[in-house]
Design a protein that fits this description.
With 297 residues, the protein is of the alpha/beta class. The chain has one domain: Divalent-metal-dependent TIM barrel enzymes (TIM Barrel, Alpha-Beta Barrel), CATH 3.20.20. The chain has ten helices and ten strands. An eight-stranded parallel barrel has the order 1-2-5-6-7-8-9-10, surrounded by seven helices. Strands 3-4 form a two-stranded antiparallel sheet.
Length: 297
Amino acid sequence: MITTSLPRRQFLGSLAAAAVTLLRPSAAQARFAAPDSAKVGGFFLGCQCWTFNRFTVFEAIEFTARAGGTVIEFFPGQSLSKEEPDVRWGHDAPEHAHAKVKDQLEKWKVTPMNYGVVGIPREEAGARKIFEFAKRWNLYGVTTESDDAIDTVEKLAKEFDVKVCYHNHPRRPNDANYKVWDPKYIAELVKDRDPRIGACGDTGHWIRTGLNPVECVQILKGRVHALHLKDRPSQQGEDVVWGNGIGDVKGVLAEVRSQGFQGNVSVEYETNWDHNITDAAQCIGYVRGLGLAKGWS
């Protein structure tokens, strides 16, 4: 039994106010979700923060917006801001960093959509921290290469309703245990798993391995949840603005669109590191124009 010296009306009002306070998300807890209006050229298009890894998270958010992107993909360990360079962003970030990142995202009208590449441990408690971070920010997906943790990954992907996107770096000729470079391996890895488990295709690393990016996304049909899109002039060449290399960006986008792709397309531009915002803007402009021409927008 509750006893109180407050008048009944005042007491009930106090209870209602307390309930609202408990239910209302704090500044750090408020979630984002990309609306269809955020699509550029028919895709949720923005930057992987790794493009701007010589800068801070705050700057990466600003640069993504200035380049014309509407969504962003975080990676773990980036410096928070010029004012707090020693604070690292990610699933282990201190509480105050969440509110500051939220404010910066709202300022530049950028929506967080993915997080990675992040190692996911097989041990559930450690893995859970990553999925809690993803759910807190209402992310579409988490990108990883932790194929050994797939049982834990699948369990938590179901629980948190978050996509898990297996990423590829180039083939390692001297490391037989590194298999995620191969889209056939990833397709086999995920085929009997929950449909939330799929791939983040890094087209530049496919090119470096000597693979055809369009054929790779065809192998992964129905399981491509994210793209780290790149274009290169040759197998070993450095990144170029989309549409100027051998990566068949147009073909990749047409193929995933035919598959019903709803994930994020990230500009991950790995050259001209100190001055690549213009290159990123041209990549985004390419998709904007392509989408208009194809009627995807």
